[in-house]
Protein: Cytochrome
Organism: Kitasatospora aureofaciens
Amino acid sequence: MATAAQTPRFTHPAARGTCPFAPPPAYRQAQQEEPVSRITLWDGSASWLATRHEDVKAVLADPRFSADSTRPGFPFLTAGVRQLNAGRPTFIRMDDPEHARLRRMLTGDFVIKKVEALRPRIQRIADDLLDRMTADGRTGADLVREFALPLPSLVICLLLGVPYQDHEFFQECSRVMLRRESSAEEVGAAQDRLVDYLNRLTEAKRTQPDDGILSRLVERGELTTAEIGAMGRLLLVAGHETTANMTALSVLALLRNPDQLDHLRRHPEAVTGAVEELLRYLTIVHSGLGRVATEDVDLGAVRIRAGEGVVCMISTANRDEDEFPDGDELDLTRDARRHLAFGFGVHQCLGQPLARLELQIALATLLRRLPELRLAVPFEDVRFRGDMLIYGVHELPLAW
Ligand code: HEM
């Protein structure tokens, strides 16, 4: 049984290889040679790395692995992430029963039936954005700025009761918070500004209630303004960054795989399955999910001791050949539903029904309305977000 004495294989995150859609080769190599291995983190500390589908699922489903970032040994991915979780952890970094108590206050807002009722409004938002993007005979635009980012931002603002006119402010805060190179001070300052803003907004809902989530949490009377503000921050950031990046990166992946794009154009009804395959293939939460062992646990050939961290690489798990044969291929006809792009276990993404619906509407509407869609710059010039905690592209210049 191997233990922490093993030599670290590399420093996390390792460099990407030639294919910008694929996880860095070092993780695929680890998956084949030593599926549970040792890595070094940014601050020189050591952590375990889980790379196989089976092992990642096992860790994320096992309550002996804690998501509580205040526990010693928790593997922070950057200095900024440590700062994000320093003062006011939200329920994503808590264990049950506290995690479940807080999450339960929101589950009703994100169940499939409730989300499906938003379909006409999301469709209208997508159409309005495309109307504007193509107005006055325009034949090109940056998809990120004009469509992929505003769509989920408008939707999450609507749900929370946050004024969309403040989007540049909260998008900038979240950019700083999610940039790998941001210092702890920069992340702390951006987070403080965002939390102050949400606290003030929450306070205002006490006298001017609306039908948004923040107002509903105020009316419930169980949480302080600061607790509601922290929840609002989690939803606002998670609710727009992820879907925005998935949308733009999906469009790029389809343009690079013309046979798959053609398949989706000819079978628009296949968009539901196509979104699952794109989630698997692209896995934008590319830095992995951190957990820390609360007692000794055997994982594969390895004994993880209490207090040792594990980084679960959902990106390599989603290309595990045992689970997804030819996993490096984008195949929209594949049944990809076992992917772990939304995580697994009690922390599995709360917003996934909303993310799925937004992605289905965004892709279907784009392909239907812009049949000539193509990249407006050489592929080599596209700037990928290797510098961010959520992967994607910084901008996507398209022509039609
Ligand atoms: C394509 C889009 C999205 C992806 C790939 C994604 C991915 C993830 C992943 C991997 C986790 C698990 C984190 C962990 O276990 O440590 C997670 C959790 C979470 N996500 Fe998402 N997400 C997306 C969209 C959204 C949206 C639209 C919302 C909100 C409206 C949202 C809200 C949350 C929340 C609140 C959690 C924490 C759940 C908990 O701890 O119980 N996400 N997401």
Summary: The radius of gyration is 21 Å. The mean pLDDT is 95.
